[in-house]
Amino acid sequence: MNREDIIRMAREAGMELYGLGKDREKFVYYLQEFAALVAAAEREACAKVCEEPGWNAANWCATQIRARGQA
Q1: Is residue 35 helix, strand or coil?
Q2: What is the spatial distance between Cα 43 and Cα 22, in angstroms, rounded to a whole number?
Q3: What is the 3-state secondary structure (H, E, C) of 19-32?
Q4: CA 71, CA 66: separation in Å to the nearest integer?
Q5: Integer angstrom CA distances of residue 69 from 15, 16, 35, 56, 58
Q6: What residue spans of 1-71 are helical by DSSP H?
Q7: Model pTM greater than 0.85?
Q8: Quick check: 6 and 35 in contact, CB under 8 A?
């Protein structure tokens, strides 16, 4: 997820970015940080589901999901 994706999703969610003047860049920065935290939490939740007992191949999936956050 890049800056443009985050701005697009914010607009889709009804958040208006224009009219913020100088504070717009600061707002977008914090919005990016927030999006990164949300994405990391979702990756971890998905990885934990994959690690449930009985899923040998799923351990590979969990590793791959977590690796996405390192890219």
Answers
A1: helix
A2: 33
A3: CCCCHHHHHHHHHH
A4: 10
A5: 25, 28, 12, 22, 18
A6: 3-12, 23-50, 56-68
A7: no
A8: yes
- CA nearest neighbour of 70 among 31, 44, 49: 44
- How far apart CA 26 and CA 70 sit, in angstroms, is 24
- Residue 59 identity: N
The residue type at 44: E
Q: What's the Rg (C-alpha) of the chain?
A: 16
The residue extents of the domains of the chain are 3-68
The SS3 of residue 13 is: coil
3-46, pLDDT tens digit by residue? 888 778 777 877 776 656 668 788 888 888 888 888 888 888 88
